């Protein structure tokens, strides 16, 4: 196939559309090159880093409009590590998991630990969504707010009829900072910062209610074996000192803090929500308007506004589109590797400019025209 060169005038200014790690804003990098660079190589247990951690915690409490008593807890490792933290340190007895993609399934698997009860899996096919169901004897409900692998979104809501001691855990890794929600409707809202927060990996953060914090304390006082690295109580104790158990990535914290300040100063979570929705609507409307593509998630109410998945007609090879775009500097729009569909997946995170989404659509039309 001859090389396809996309005219420079229609290319995005920033061609990074990956679902994680996400693009970073130039202003973040510039700030890191000056103020952030002075923090590198210093102890995370000394005041400059502890002050930055406190600023992250306070900024997130402001961003999430946290109810009284909620705390920001952070620890080493990403969301994958937090699944094990939750299994060892927070879950009790029986649980229920909402699964409609790869990441919901992984958390459900973590809850199948032998020292826990049964896991009631409410499974929807990829591209669709089912619902949690209130059931007696279920102590922990878990679900992804945004399933990154498929682009399916779930509202943050507690279940009427759930046992009064039950807690709700929301996997918000690709939603946090880009989709608005009511924090009182969940007990644990956890995420890693490499999506809407335009930072890097190696850290998990969780907005936790008093109920969840009390549950963690209760579990830690039992004879259950809990590795120190997976102890939520240890993470809570350290977080109250504005630090983590092991040395965190200072650059990750700095970039995260810059993004939190930017979102709060721009109008907070409602502003970010409107921004990601406007960008994703452009892609969904485009897919609905052309003959060769369609939104993978057919129900508009289930479509993510931060991860857009688009199926292509069998006559068009989506992998070739992605290859051509990559050769022109437009990168990371490949589908989730385990889904195996003829589709593209585009991040419309808070740091992604709407003008770049518009340019991406122009590029897609251009490349499909050349390939056709």
TrEMBL record:
Keyword presence, Amino-acid biosynthesis: yes
Matching SUPFAM superfamilies: PLP-dependent transferases (SSF53383)
The protein's enzyme class: transferase
Any single GO BP term: pyridoxine biosynthetic process
Pathway: Amino-acid biosynthesis; L-serine biosynthesis; L-serine from 3-phospho-D-glycerate: step 2/3
GO molecular function per UniProt: alanine-glyoxylate transaminase activity; L-serine-pyruvate transaminase activity; O-phospho-L-serine:2-oxoglutarate aminotransferase activity
InterPro entries per record: Aminotrans_V_dom, Pser_aminoTfrase, Pser_aminoTfrase_mycobac, PyrdxlP-dep_Trfase, PyrdxlP-dep_Trfase_major, PyrdxlP-dep_Trfase_small
Family: Belongs to the class-V pyridoxal-phosphate-dependent aminotransferase family. SerC subfamily.
Protein name (Swiss-Prot/TrEMBL): phosphoserine transaminase
